[in-house]
Every structure is written in structure tokens, then in C-alpha cells.
Amino acid sequence: MKPTLPATLLHTLAPWRNAPAWHIAFSGGLDSTVLLHLLASLAKIENLPPVSAVHVHHGLQAAADAWPAHCQSVCDALGVPLRVMRVQVSPGASLERAAREARYQAFMQVMVAGEVLFTGQHRDDQAETLLFRLLRGAGVRGLASMPEHRPLAQGHLVRPLLAFSRSELEAYAHQHQLQWIEDPSNADPRFSRNYLRHRVFPTLTERWPQAITHLARTAEHMAEAQGLLDELALMDLQRADQPSTFPWLPLPSLALEPLRELSDARQRNALRHWLIPLTGLPDSDHWAGWHALRDAKGDAQPLWRLADGQMQRSGERIWWLPSTWSEFSDASVSWPDPQNPLELTGNGQLKFIGEAPEGPLVIRYRQGGEIIDVPGRGRRDLKRLLNESGMPGFVRGRLPLVYRGEQLLAVPSVAGAWARSVGEVQLDWLPQSCDQGLS
Q1: Cα end-to-end span (Å), the chain
Q2: Measured between alpha carbons, how far is 30 from 38 in angstroms, rounded to an integer?
């Protein structure tokens, strides 16, 4: 006999029993109403973390204005605190996606470290997700569909109902005489998921009654396959994660040669894994940018533009530059008191270590043709000095140059490569979001 829904759910919840708090994403629909009732009922007989509900009001349709009151009445009856959050949905090509992003932004505002947010997606949702992504040409990661749990803000997002079908949730709701909201937009076939739910799946299940179960099982297989690919990626990235000669530079980077030794498929697998926390992943046709970056000549400075930044190559190393990397002002800045550190807008901090020269000084950025006096080497061209150091080209435009009048007085230098500055004074630059500076 199949275990009851509460018993199975309690087993699924076991890893999260020690969380500081549980939140339920409560739309008022069937799925979240069943989940809320289940957790509120279990909380009466089990020692569970504090349970509360969160209702996100998108304001996209007039009918939705009545939903917060309905959700409040349900929560009051169950003795569960409710928080209603109103969001603005940014217009875009996909209203579904924009609403989802706004909803999860609201959820992240609720989360505190270690807390758990439960959502009510079920087996039918999983099957729809798989088929939807299959039709979009997704790879293994996409076809793994919705994971049972994943990180969210400082806590965790958990989907404890994925093992159950919508019909099982309906049966539970009728058994306990639950009342839920029927969202009118769920019947609109203009939305892709609704089209699949109302037009495609009825036809599939008429011919193959177990289609939803089998598709959800395929998503499980894909999730397992993706886990193996992730393990392989970690092995390959471990070889490429060699220390940079610029430890002060606050950017993710990898050695290129260990990646070159891999097959093209393993390169893409490793880079997908590496890029996930950094940017939206490229589609299949966009990987030509990686090949151009990888195969460029050593003295070239190729780049590969992605959704949230770009990958650049300097010598035999690749670097990730987020979109925010270029958000700094290269206008001249006065430094009236060099005895104290100077905060550079969007470009970190500059300070002298030792007896600083008398001010006022001015910070400028490279224009080309700069000359500096180097103790023991005479007047040297700054470009040549930077070339000797091997400093990546994308850093050079941000390098703060310290002037007194028209004299280039000091430049942060690579330790041991060329002069620090006059005498024993050392100029230290701590780039944005970096723990170690360039001296």
C-alpha cells in the first residue's frame, strides 16, 4: 500500500527539521492550499520549526485583489501567520517569467539564513516543465527540470510535493473540504504552460495514460545525469583553477591550458558549471564565442560577451568580467590629503604605505604615452612597464595614476616587477570588492 500523503511528506521534510523557520509560498490555489494544510496539521503533532505563509500579490488582474483576504482567512483558520507582499511586474517578452522573477525576489526578502521556503509544485508540474524545456531545445541541465531543493538567498527552496500528482492533491483537498482559488489566467491557452496543460497533455494521456508519471521519471533520470556531469566538471575545473599571478585582482579566472587538453564537450561542460553563478548560460549557437576566445593568438585580447558580463583572455588565462566591472568613472580626482586613504568611485581604494608625499595630488587614468621615473632605471615608458608585468589589458584602463601637477609621481606596481615609488614609500591599490590590494 502506498504511504499516505502526510507520512510521505514528513519523510521528505526530515532534512529540514532543524531549520530556524519554515515559510510556505501561498498563492491560495490548490497546490499551496494542500501544502499549507498538511504542514499546519503536522505542526500540531510533530515538533516542527515555526511555520508561516507568504502571499505575493502581482496586481496583474482585477480578480487577484480579493485573493489576499481569502488567504488571510485560510491562514487564520489554521493558526498560521501570513505576510502579504505586493510586487511590481516588469513588462517584457514573457509575462510568466517576469511574474516569476518578481515573486522570487519577494520570497528572498523574507528569507533569513538557514530558513526554508516550501512551494507546492507537483508531479504534473514537473512533467509540464520537462516537455516545455524539451520543446525549447534544452540540454541535460534544463531537462532535469525542477530540483527537489536548491539554495535561495541565504536559505533553501524546497518542493516537497513533486512525488504526488495533481489528482492526489485534489483528493486530499476534497477529503478535508478545503477551499481554494481558481486563477482565471490558468485557463488562458496563450500562456505556454496552460497550452500544454489543457491542449497537449489530455491528448498524450488519452493515448499513454502514464505519460505524466513517465515524463516526471525522465526528469529524475536527467537530474541524476546532470549530477554526474557536475562531478566531472569539478574534476576538470580543479586542474584549471591554478593560482593567478595577480592575486589582488578580484575576478574569477581559470588557466587555459588544462581546458585546452579536454574534448570540446568537456570544455563546455566545465565552463557551464563555472559560469552558472556568474551569468545566464549561452545557447548552443553562442559557443562559437568560446572557440574564438580559446583559439586566438597569445598576444590577442579576445572577449566573449555573455548575458551578465564578458569573458576575456590575457595570455594563457581566461577571466570573467561582470557587467559592473566597467561601471567606474575615469575622470580626474583630487587627493588633497595623501596621508589618508582615497576612495575611488567604483574603483576601490588607494593609499600610501609609509611616509606619503605632500599633497595635493591628482588621480588620473591612462591616456597613452605616460613616462615615469624608475629608481635605478631612469625614465621609462609606462606601457612597456605594464607589458613587462603581464598585467591584463582590461585592468590597465582602471589603474590609478598619481600626479603632482603634470608629473606622474607614482603608479601601483606588481611586486618585484618594477619600482614601487620614490624611496621607501609604497602605493597600494585595493580594487573594488577585493581582499588583497595591488602594491
Answers
A1: 70
A2: 12
Report the Cα 153 to chain-centroid distance in Å.
10
DSSP 3-state of 342: strand
| Partners of 175 in beta bridges | none
| Secondary structure (DSSP) of 67-98 | HHHHHHHHHHHHT--EEEEE--PPP-S-HHHH
Cα–Cα dist 426/439, whole Å: 7
Amino acid type, 270 = A
Contacts 24+ apart (CB under 8 A), 99-106: 99/58, 99/60, 102/56, 102/58, 103/25, 103/56, 103/58, 104/152, 106/54, 106/56
| Spans in the chain with pLDDT lower than 70 | 1-3, 92-93, 413-424, 433-439
Above pLDDT 70, what percent of the chain? Answer: 95
Instruction: Show the beta-strand stretches assigned E in 298-415.
Output: 303-306, 309-314, 317-322, 333-335, 342-344, 348-353, 361-364, 371-374, 378-381, 401-404, 407-410
Known binding site for ATP: residues? Answer: 27-32
- DSSP E strands: which ranges in 197-341? 253-255, 303-306, 309-314, 317-322, 333-335
Length of the chain in terms of residues written:
439
Mind listing the domains of the chain with CATH numbers? 5-222 (3.40.50.620), 241-326 (3.30.465.60), 333-430 (no CATH)
Alpha carbons 98 and 79: distance in angstroms, whole number: 32
| 225 phi/psi in degrees, rounded to 5 | -65, -40
Enumerate the known binding-site residues.
27-32
Neighbours of 198 (CB within 10 A): 13
| DSSP H or E segment with residue 239 | helix 211-240
pTM: 0.83
DSSP class of 330: -
